[in-house]
Specification:
By secondary structure, the chain is an alpha+beta fold. The protein is built from three helices and ten strands. The radius of gyration is 17 Å and the shape is globular. The termini are far apart.
């Protein structure tokens, strides 16, 4: 019985790891200059939420801060040495880490994709990209795009003007 429980637990852990959105293997090459502030609209089948995202450069990596529209922090992560690190007193948020990883892919230049992501993990055309396991990016232009995760969640991104920064 204990062996069976251990086997099931191991399978669950491995499947959770396999479904993670990959991070770049090296320093990401972005087509935007940091710092950058973005408006995000998250849509599911029954809800719509608006968020603000600020991405700031740091000596070793970058800081990603997500806020609701009244300025309440929802998530803070640091990207350094190819890993996400929790920052502050906010609890870990797997959805946000997955979103930030997919956003990093969306903001990367095509040469950056070739240099930093396994070739079989992504595809790119002029106005669309896909990233395994289940992200799809559709661009209106470089700074306005939509990220979709499977059939259930959609995120629309647009930059904020300098005077709108939180």
């Amino acid at each position: 019985m204990i062996v069976r429980i251990l086997c099931i637990s191991l399978c669950l852990v491995l499947s959770a790891c396999a479904a993670r959105t990959p991070l770049p293997q090296g320093d990401p090459q972005l087509h935007v200059s940091l710092p950058v502030s973005m408006h995000i609209q998250r849509q599911t089948n029954d809800t719509t939420e608006d968020w603000l995202l600020v991405i700031q450069p740091q000596a070793q990596g970058s800081r990603w801060s997500l806020f609701d529209l009244i300025g309440t922090p929802l998530a803070r992560q640091q990207l350094s040495a190819g890993q996400w690190h929790d920052e502050g007193l906010l609890p870990p948020n797997d959805e946000t880490r997955e979103l930030f990883s997919a956003l990093l892919f969306s903001l990367s230049t095509v040469p950056g994709l070739r240099d930093n992501y396994p070739a079989d993990s992504w595809t790119s055309s002029s106005m669309q990209r896909t990233l395994r396991p289940d992200w799809r990016v559709s661009y209106s232009d470089e700074s306005h795009f939509t990220l979709e995760k499977g059939e259930h969640v959609r995120y629309q991104f647009s930059p904020l003007a300098d005077n709108e920064n939180p």
